[in-house]
Structure of ZSWIM1/3 RNaseH-like domain-containing protein:
Amino acid sequence: MTCREQNNKYSRKKKETEESQESILVLNYKELDQRLSETINDIGEEEYFENCESGIKFSSFIDISFLKDKPPKEIADNVKNFIGEIDGYYYIYNKEYHSKKMTRSTLIDRFDCDSVVKIMIDITNQQAIIDYTHGILHKRPERHPISEDIKEFINSQLHLSPAEIFAQLELNNPDITQKQIHYWWTQIMKNNYQRDQDQLISSYSLLNERNYNIILMDLDGDVKYIGFITPLFQQLINKKEVLVDATYKTNALKYELYSVIGQIDGAGFSAAYLFLDNAKKNNGIRTSILTSFFRELKNIGLKNIEYFLTDKDFSQITDNEPKNINQSSLLNSKQQYDFIDTQWILSLSSKTTVSSNNFIFCPKNLRSEVLDLFVKHYHQHPLIPSIQNDFLFAQAIQRNAVEEMYLLCHKHNLIHLWSYLWTNWYQYDMWILWARSASPDEICIFKTTMLTESHWKVIKRDYLPKFFRPRLDLVTYIVITRLIPHNEIMLKKYITGRQDPSWRKDFKQNWKQLFFICKHLVNLVKENISLKFFKEVQHQGVYPLLEMKPIFYGNLNQNNIDNVTTEETTITTKLFNSSDNFQEVSSEIFVEIENTLKRALQIVQGQHALLNIQWARSINKNIEGVRKMISDIDKYENRITNPRTWKEHNNNTMFYE
C-alpha cells in the first residue's frame, strides 16, 4: 500500500468515526456508572453476584472534558479506576503486569477470565472510547478484609438478603462494602448446599442426607436425571387429578425441572420432582425418561389419576413434530360426519404448497375467531347446559364442535388449517386428550396448569430472586429446605382452619358481591350464611357442583328452602314464599330510605328559600350517588335490548324491576 493510499484510508476512517460520534450518545461518569451497573445486573440480577457462567461486553463513549488539563496517561488511569469502582475489580496495564504483581505486598487471587479494558483517548473532542470485556464475573478482591465476627453474623442471618445484612452492619463497619457482604453470604451459603463439584452428584447427596425417596436416577449416562417424591406424596396419592409442568431457566446446567402437583382443598402441593438434562431433547430420550418417571409414580401408589393436566401439546409430549397431514384420515372423516366435503379434501394436494411465498395458514383477521371457537369447544360439557338451556351428550358436543370448526375453515377455504386441526386436535384419538366433555360424568375442577405456574413462580421470586441460573444443588437445597417445609406448614394451617386457600377467599368475596350467582337462591339463604359456611363449602365435579358438609345442611332454615334434590344431571329446587320476617325487613328498608329522602328534600327546600348558595355548593357532591342512580335507571329503562349477562348491570340496575 502506498503512502497516499494509507493516508486516504486513515482520512476515511477518521471521517467515519467523526460522523458516527455525532449520532452516538456520549455518557458522563454518572451515566457510565448506571449503564455498566445495569449490564452487570442483567447478567446476575444482583449487582454483586459472582457468576462463573456468564460474562460482559460493554462499549461506550464517555465525556472527559473535566479532565482536559490532564495528560492522556492520567486520564486513562482515572477512567480505569472509575470502572474498577463500578464492577469491583482491579485493572493494571498489560505491559506492567509482572512488575505490578511482584511489588504488591498482598497477593490477590487471579482468574483466567479473559478480561480487558481498552481505553482510547480523543483529546480534540474531549472524549474517551472504552471497550470493556470481562469473561466471567468471578470473586472480587477485598480491599478491606472481613473479620471473623462479621462472617459469624452473616452466617446467623442467611435468611436475609445481602442488602439487608449490609444495612445492619454498615453503621459500625464503614469500610466494608455490599459487594463483600454478598460474596461472603454466597460463600457461606455454599457450605450449606454444595457437597460435590458435580452439581447433580451434590444434589443426590443433599437428598440422601435428608432421607428423600429417590425413585429414578442416572448420574453417569449421556442424559443425566434424578427424580424424587416429597413427604406430601402419601397425602396426594388418592387424588383424581395431577398437574405437571417444567421450568427451564432456573439452574446453571439448564436442566428441565419437572414438578408433579396434586391438590388438597383446591390448593396445590408438590408430590414429586424430576431434574432432567435438556441437552438431547430431540431424540426421544426425554420422552422415555418421563415415561419411566410416571410409571414409577404409579408403581408406588399414584394409581387413581383420571385427569392429567399439562400445558404441552402433543408434539411436545412425544418429542416429535406435529402429526403429518394424512389425507386418508381426512377422507375417512366423511364416514363419521356427513357434512364433510370430499372434493374439498381432495383439493388439498393441488393447493398452494406450504413453502410458497403466497401461502397463508390462517389469516390474521380470523385468528381470534378460530381461538374463541376452540376455547368454546374446550369448555363444553354434558353437565353444563348450552345457551339454549339444553344438556347435550358428549357425542353431540364433539359432533357440533367438529362441524363448527370445519364450516369456518370451509367458508374461508382454509384447507391446510382444517387439516392441521383435524389431525392434531379434532379427530377422536386427539379429542379425548384435551376436551373436557371427554369425561362426560364429571367435570375436572381444574381448567389450567396455573397451580404449577404459581409453584415455579414462588421458587423464582421468593427463594431465588438473587440468583441468575444458580447451581442445580442450590435449587435442590431451596426446594427441600425452604419450599417443601413451607408447603407442609401451609397444609397444616388449612387443615386446622388457621388459614384458608386463596379460592375460598375469592369465593367469599364473589358471594358477598352477588355476581354470577343465582340471586334468588342467595337472597333466600343469606340469613343462614355464616363464616362456617365459607370454611365448609366444597367444589366438586358432579352435581351439586358446590357441596356443603352435612353439618351445614342441618343448620339451614327450612322455612326458606323446602327441598334440594339431585338426580343425575337434574337439580330440582322448590322455593317457597319468603317468610313474614323477610317481608318486614324489606318494608323497613324502604321506609327508612323514603324517610331519609323526604327529610333531605325538606332541608334542601328550606335552604333554597333562603338562597343559601354557599351551602348548596358545599353539599352538592354528596348527592352524586343519587344522581348516578337516577341516570343509570333512566338509561336502563330506555334500552332497546335486554342485558345479556350480569356484567351489563351495576348495583343500581341489577335488581331493578
